[in-house]
Amino acid sequence: MKTIHIFILFIAVAVAQLFVPAQMIFNQESIITNGTAYKFKTQPVDPSDPYRGKYINLNYEQNSFITTDTVWDRKDKVYVYLETDSLGFAKVNAVSKTLVNLDKDFFIAEVVWYNKKDQKLNFNLPFNRYYMEETKAYDAEVAVRNNQRDSIKNNTYALVYIKNGEVVLSDVVISGISIKEYVEKDIEKTID
């Protein structure tokens, strides 16, 4: 009788271990399938990130908003509402301390600081790491950094899907090419 209980417990734990990752994958795929895609302009990557071998660390141009609300503390939660500019890039439309508009796409960010002089709220976006195969991540980060120095504006951006406040960083695009393909082409060039 005791072995049956242990076997049932084992099966329950095994199912739970499969269910949790499957649910996470399903949620992310649901956001990509049913969410709205936004392109976020990136800024140059910090080359001294100690984890660059595992992911690309991204900085964004849209990391602040002018607001007259002066009561912001570091690490506060801020609801960031979006719209798209004339070039198709994400643009912050409004910020709020509470969820006020379910009709607009939003995500939750963390306050870095509020500059009272400029009335500018600065925040960290929750999708600043793009994970890649470890052997390609450094090359990808170098490619992003080098293309940021390029004279062509808006040639590097992150493709982020947003649905009900949930976000998925789907891809990083350089000159219209996915970072995965871009790095593959660079690797092939160096081999030839």
What shape does the CA trace take? globular
Note the gap between the termini: 66 Å
Rounded mean pLDDT is: 83
The order of strands across the largest sheet is 3-1-10-11-12
Strand content: 35-45%
The helix content, as a percent range, equals 25-40%
Tally of helical segments: 3
Radius of gyration from the alpha-carbon trace, in angstroms: 20 Å
**Biggest sheet, open or closed, and with what strands and sense?**
5 strands, antiparallel
Structural class: alpha+beta
- Could you name the ranges where pLDDT drops below 50 across 5 or more consecutive residues? none
SSE ordering? HEEEEEEEEEHEEEH
Topology:
Blueprint: H1 2-34, E1 36-43, E2 55-57, E3 59-60, E4 64-66, E5 77-84, E6 90-96, E7 106-115, E8 120-124, E9 129-131, H2 134-148, E10 156-163, E11 166-174, E12 177-178, H3 179-191
Antiparallel strand pairs: 1-3, 1-10, 2-9, 4-8, 5-6, 5-7, 7-8, 10-11, 11-12
Report on this model:
With 192 residues, the chain is an alpha+beta fold. It has 2 domains: 1-34; 35-191, no CATH class. It is built from 3 helices and 12 strands; from the N terminus they run αβββββββββαβββα. It is globular.
